[in-house]
Amino acid sequence: MTLLLAGCGTTPSAGGSADKSLILATTTSTQDSGLLDELLPVFTRDSGWQVKTVAVGSGQAIEMGRRGEADVLLVHSPAAEEKFVAEGSAGPRRLVMHNDFVLLGPKADPAEIRGTGSTEAMKKIAAAEAVFVSRGDESGTHTKEQGLWSKAGATPGGSWYQSTGQGMGATLRVASEKAGYTLSDRATYLTQRDTLALEVLSEGDAGLLNVYHVIEITKKAGDRVRPDGGKAFADWVVAPPAQRLIGEFGRAKFGQPLFTPDAGADESKLGQ
């Protein structure tokens, strides 16, 4: 497990001694894309809350919330999120934003997936036993990847299927070095594209939608939880000023925003 800590010199424990300090457990994609670097200083300026960030896979972030080791989550694994909220220790879960996943691979494209839909692409990769590099870390991206294999009726395994157990940025570098295929959120890929020998080969179908929610944690998860801090962040990130920041992030550098703000939207209509 790789922990990426921001704004904290030591491994944090929920409800630390700082008067207004909260712990945000989130995905590596929000860290690796640079989005948090854009949002968190503004949140601190607006609210007075300092943020200690732990960037891991969504599954690990949810486990932190379950154990009362975080005050708020920003994650992208909807089925796991819904299960967690149903357990009763979480507070409100609100829609924040979306982007999409892309299937990446080397320019040579040995499995010939270029331009195909995600289901057909996964079938071709498995049939060719082409190198595929998985995060293998129970993250939202890993969960999405597993769903794509299942939808394709393919069971990955053997020497061609390799897991890093690391975040998105590290997994992209491994896939590039091995001239393999991988699944990535578009934002992290775009921020690292110039350092990678990988191209977008399959994109745009409904199965590749990537939706993010913010989830508050309550004291039912543990006495150290700061529900006031979690609520402050959750309220802020779905409010219009933060949503505008999200909608503009990446536009100047990449010619397109890396995330689409969705607070208040009908989630059933996303991607349509």
Automatic annotation (TrEMBL):
Q: Where are the transmembrane segments?
A: none
In terms of Gene3D superfamilies, this protein maps to: Periplasmic binding protein-like II
**Which InterPro entries does the entry link to?**
ABC-Tungstate_binding, PBP_domain
Where the record annotates domain PBP, the positions are 18-239
One Pfam short name:
PBP_like_2
Q: Which PANTHER family match?
A: EXTRACELLULAR TUNGSTATE BINDING PROTEIN
The name on file for this protein is Tungsten ABC transporter substrate-binding protein
Organism this protein belongs to: Nonomuraea glycinis
